[in-house]
Known about the structure:
By secondary structure, this protein is α+β, with helices and mostly antiparallel strands.
Amino acid sequence: xxxxxxxxIALSSIEQEDKHLLKVxxxxxxxxxxxxxxxxxxxxxxxxxxxxxxxxLDGDTYFYSNPEPIFEEWGSYSVMLxxxxxxxxxxxxxxxKGLYNTGFMGFKxxxxxxxxxxxxxxxxxxxCYDEVENGLWSDQFxxxxxxxxxxxxxxxxxIGVNLTPSKIQRSKVxxxxxxxxxxxxxxxxxxxxxxxxxxxxxxxxYSYIYTLNLSNDVLKWIYLPYIYEAxxxxxxxxxIENNFYKEDRPKDKFIRxxxxxxxxxxxxxxxxxxxxxxxxxxxxxxxxxxNSLKRHTSKFHLWIxxxxxxxxxxxxxxxxENVTLISLENIKDEKLNNIKKQRKIxxxxxxxxAPFISYLMKxxxxxxSILYIDADVFFFEDIKMIYEDWGNESIxxxxxxxxxxxxxxxxxxSAGLIGFKRDEYAMKCLxxxxxxxxxxxxxxxxxxxxxxxxxxxxxxxxxxxxxxxENLGINAGPWYIRxxxxxFAKDNRIFFNGYQxxxxxxxxxxxxxxKEYELSNRTKxxxxxxxxxxxxxxxxxxxxxxxxxxxxxxxxxxxxxxxxDKLYNYFTLNQSTxxxxxxxxxx
Length: 587
């Protein structure tokens, strides 16, 4: 590559001089061996290149301004470190990753620094692994007591030096005269450890143990420049040695802090951003939702939270356009992991809505709005009609219009279709909803609570920036059933009580197999509604056929034998076909 001001050195050259280092190579993985080699490499440079100092930098660091302030603060110290600043403390009293971050270490070519480096080399060769053992982890815990053990060891106070993901979340970030400042200090270099490059569009910003809470400004000012630089470097490398770096979409990979360049950088003003949650029991309905969106809406993007591995793997094989799959593993933290064990699967999915929506808003700064839709919602018209109805308000809700007795138990609004804009009013409600659902979300009525839904009654007390739809054709469902409601088809459109049907929520529908269904397991539906259900059942049967081509065993895992004596609304594919034939004959 002919890099100016760079001297490549083969690790084998260092190993030839340090036989003890080479001896432990086979006992450690690549990452552990790199950690082990740090002190040996620096001693080699100080000895063979006669430099008066050396500054170790991990390979995933990137400079945003002149490094001169580092050397000004280093001054006369023999050794220079930066604090790690992790919050978590381990059982032995040490901070979980050590007091100092060894991605940055400075050593002068003097007696004190060489004494420190030689001791460090010996300890690393003796033990350096990616596991916690006897108060050690990697190379970092060795550094904890250097200020007491060795002379003339300094610690850089400038937060802009070796800034890490854990620090940036708790810092004020500003841009002044095109320079980035962190807590009023200019950003010198950022250490993006945990960053994972996949295909040049999809990235994991931090692949380690926790989920980042990065501001929009941090994403735009710190991570995007790094991402674009990485893309350019991959292009350069591959031009020298073709396919040295194989770019590949991150299928079947655990991505904790997902970032999609295209979705963040594109002007998405005309692209409707939607999200849903799928379990294997709602996979068929979820694909029907996707098909209905694709059929009626020209520009949309659907984010799908895959609650189980089966859903993720099957949808991955389908390679759906305009879809991003998010594994549950990317979202769940320790709290959600415990909740999943304690609550029924449908209760857990209710609990998961607000965390999932929060996750998407947090990781996609250009996501100006998002509409959550339950997987068993199906569109009969373009979703733009919902956005036109939503207008400029912060939150979008649809009323359930239940009888007073049922409204008291289940709430005034549907949690199956909710919209959030990226503004302070919507985010305040979203954060409040998330806290409440994590605290309590069960399929029972208790002290003015039921599922995730009854909480919505309180939102008008939090903000007035709410659009409560009056259009009965949006998120219609079995709960709308009243005597006199009319359903009819005209000019290839379906009308529901005088409103054009935009989307219907097939809540309570059960799939027994490709041919048999229960339309609703809650109430007896009038025959006039069977037109709507006939269209949906026909779609479900088609999807089941398509799924069998990909995984012939999947449908058997969700199928069951119907108990005909206890069904409210037994319906067959033959009935659906007849309804659709009659519909076509009448048009």
